[in-house]
Amino acid sequence: MLETILAVKQQEIEKLFLPEEQSFNHYSLYNSLKKAPHAAGLIAEVKKASPSKGIIREDFNPVQIAYDYDKAGVQAISVLTDQHFFQGHRDYLTAIKKVVDVPVLRKDFIIDSIQVAESAYIGADAILLIGEAMEAKKLHELYCQAYELGMEALVEVHSEDTLNHILNEFTPKILGINNRNLHTFETTLSQTEQMAKRAPKECILVSESGIFTYEDLQKAAAYGAEGVLVGESLMRQKDIKAAVRKLLEGVNVG
Ligand SMILES: O=P(O)(O)OC[C@@H](O)[C@@H](O)c1c[nH]c2ccccc12
């Protein structure tokens, strides 16, 4: 799947044009996660669909969802900007950026420096860089570019092998452990449990995917995650604010 996605991205990159330059306030994902008042900071995702699940939310108003996330007290908002596989759009990110006061993470398949530049233009505070999508050296280059442009990067890994390759090259400040198996699409929190043992102490750890309940969040935190990235479970609930409260506080409201 990742190969298919990257092949499509490569074609998109060839046609990519940068939007007009605008100025944005910037917020730090790192600081926001560090200041989280719960067991782990919540990065809540705006995601309409995915290749493995199809349409996740029919009634999809990205700006309203992000606004509700912000009001419910999340630490950051992740926005899918990939159109082809996730039905996202870069314009969603820009529109969201204008109405929230928390850092906005651009979720896409970034493999080229033009996409990093594009991310800054559209107003991203941070970008996702996927360890399995490129060589560690290339990833480090894009990582440095992001920081030079005033953004941060969440470096995501699935396997221990990839983590080792990256750590041979550099130590990312924010490290995401994706609980989703790239081949089977299954998620398991034991991925976070295992990989957390291999992560350097100076990284802030984010446990990604397959987190549905308050108990899952507590578990991820107990394994060492200072942040969790949650999409589907929030997106499937009608009342976004109540969904966030349930996840963070474990209470069944509404
Ligand atoms: O919907 P979930 O299982 O809560 O997962 C969110 C997020 O981790 C997932 O969307 C994701 C993780 N890494 C990605 C890379 C690209 C696109 C999407 C993703």
From TrEMBL:
<dbReference type="InterPro" id="IPR001468">
    <property type="entry name" value="Indole-3-GlycerolPSynthase_CS"/>
</dbReference>
<comment type="pathway">
    <text>Amino-acid biosynthesis; L-tryptophan biosynthesis; L-tryptophan from chorismate: step 4/5.</text>
</comment>
<keyword id="KW-0456">Lyase</keyword>
<comment type="similarity">
    <text>Belongs to the TrpC family.</text>
</comment>
<protein>
    <recommendedName>
        <fullName>Indole-3-glycerol phosphate synthase</fullName>
        <ecNumber>4.1.1.48</ecNumber>
    </recommendedName>
</protein>
<keyword id="KW-0028">Amino-acid biosynthesis</keyword>
<dbReference type="Pfam" id="PF00218">
    <property type="entry name" value="IGPS"/>
</dbReference>
<dbReference type="InterPro" id="IPR011060">
    <property type="entry name" value="RibuloseP-bd_barrel"/>
</dbReference>
<dbReference type="InterPro" id="IPR013798">
    <property type="entry name" value="Indole-3-glycerol_P_synth_dom"/>
</dbReference>
<dbReference type="GO" id="GO:0004640">
    <property type="term" value="F:phosphoribosylanthranilate isomerase activity"/>
</dbReference>
<keyword id="KW-0210">Decarboxylase</keyword>
<dbReference type="GO" id="GO:0000162">
    <property type="term" value="P:L-tryptophan biosynthetic process"/>
</dbReference>
<dbReference type="InterPro" id="IPR013785">
    <property type="entry name" value="Aldolase_TIM"/>
</dbReference>
<keyword id="KW-0057">Aromatic amino acid biosynthesis</keyword>
<keyword id="KW-0822">Tryptophan biosynthesis</keyword>
<dbReference type="InterPro" id="IPR045186">
    <property type="entry name" value="Indole-3-glycerol_P_synth"/>
</dbReference>
<dbReference type="GO" id="GO:0004425">
    <property type="term" value="F:indole-3-glycerol-phosphate synthase activity"/>
</dbReference>
<feature type="domain" description="Indole-3-glycerol phosphate synthase">
    <location>
        <begin position="9"/>
        <end position="247"/>
    </location>
</feature>
